[in-house]
Amino acid sequence: MTPDQELQPSTRRLHITGIVVVIFALVVVAFGLVSRAEQTSHLHDLTEQRAVPNVALISPSALQSGSGGLELPGRLEAYIRAPIYARIPGYLKSWKHDIGSKVKAGELLAEIDTPDLDQQLMQARADLNVAEANAKLAEITAKRWQALAGTDAVSTQDVDQRTFSWNANMAQVKAAQANVDRLSAEEGFKRLIAPFDGMVTARETDIGALINVGSSGGTELFVISETSKLRVYVNVPQNFVPSVPSGTKATITVPEHPGKVYSGTVEASAQSVSPSTGTTLMQIIVDNTNGEMMPGDYASIHLEAATVAGLLSLPSSAVIFDARGLSVATVDASNHVVLKSISIVSDLGTAVQVASGVSTSDRVIDSPPDGIVNGTAVHPVVSATPSVADGKSKSGTDHG
């Protein structure tokens, strides 16, 4: 066997070994690529799945007509409130009652020192004395000339002149007297008195303070309030106005007396709807003989009014307010978001009463995520369905 024949098997074995190594390397690379592709696909699916937000679903609850009443905020005001202003300028000489003092009608509140007015009154009285003296002299003169009118000693023209001079002087007396009476009346305004039985709820002046009058500088000095009865003003939504006639009973609570309930009655309505709020202003009168409530108090008012039929209740957290207005996010059968515009009758704080836009069969998202839009895929989860129609809650589940 020649050397060339001996080398041929060795070369063939090397070729076969190289081919096997290459094939093995290709298999390893292919396996790695397939494995990496499967991992990437799994990661993509997992990311897509986690990108779908979990949402809690609720269903609107129907309000039962004739039950529940109406809860509204309000503000207490004095039955009668009278700010006391000065009618004359001067300086405050003294005040007799401070805030919280009970006063009777006609009782003195304060006195004003008016040196300018006092001098004007003295001058007016002096002018009156001069006018009366001139009138007396004119009267004597006129009567003397009238006595000589039947003789040829005086002319008729002279008699008439003296008579008319007397009349002119009498007119000056009346003008001077009117000026004295005016200034005397103003002197009476030096005493500030209470216009009715009530309580001093504000004192905005002190001894020695400069007192100005008129629209440019006049300020209130005292405020007298009648607090044995109080007025409560509430804005009733338009849909409920027919259910709240005069005589409707109301219960009032105030924060400083928790657990205590006061009774009142609707006595007046504005009989008009405010275009900006869609509500009607109503007035409730509540007895406050014991003085426990104060003017200016914030109050919660419950009106015993029949609920308007056809209204639905939703938690406030389900309402979306944006440039499009008020809406809620609902979920369709394929678990995609459908935004629906709603019309709210009243906002009760934790809940709203809806007149249109949704139905009891809708699946509404409670606390929808920010930026949610139509067509967004969501994943419904078990949720509690609150019912605020009667102020209670009942649990339910929705598995989407």
Question: Describe it for me?
Answer:
Helices cover 29% and strands 32% of the residues. By secondary structure, it is α+β, with helices and mostly antiparallel strands. The protein has a six-stranded antiparallel beta barrel with strand order 3-10-13-12-11-14. It has a four-stranded antiparallel beta sheet with strand order 2-15-20-19, with no helix packed on it. Strands 7-6-4-9 form a four-stranded antiparallel beta sheet, with no helix packed on it.
Summarize the structure.
With 400 residues, the chain is of the alpha+beta class.
Summarize the helix and strand pattern as letters: HEEEEEEHHEEEEEEEEEEEEEEEE
Helix/strand-derived category reads: alpha+beta
The stretches of 5 or more residues where confidence is low (pLDDT under 50) are: 385-400
Helix content: 25-40%
- Overall mean pLDDT stands at 82
The strand order across the widest sheet is 3-10-13-12-11-14
Helix segment tally: 3
Number of strands: 22
How would you describe the shape?
A: elongated
Note the gap between the termini: 86 Å
Query: Mind telling me the C-alpha Rg?
Result: 46 Å
- Strand portion: 25-35%
Sheet with the most strands?
A: 6 strands, antiparallel, barrel
Features:
400 residues, alpha+beta, six-stranded antiparallel beta barrel, four-stranded antiparallel sheet, 22 strands, 29% helix, disordered C terminus
How does the SSE layout of this entry go?
Layout: H1 3-51, E1 54-58, E2 61-62, E3 70-84, E4 90-95, E5 102-103, E6 108-113, H2 115-147, H3 156-188, E7 191-193, E8 198-203, E9 210-211, E10 222-237, E11 249-253, E12 262-269, E13 279-287, E14 298-303, E15 312-315, E16 319-322, E17 325-331, E18 337-341, E19 343-347, E20 351-356, E21 364-366, E22 379-381
Helix pairs in contact: 2-3
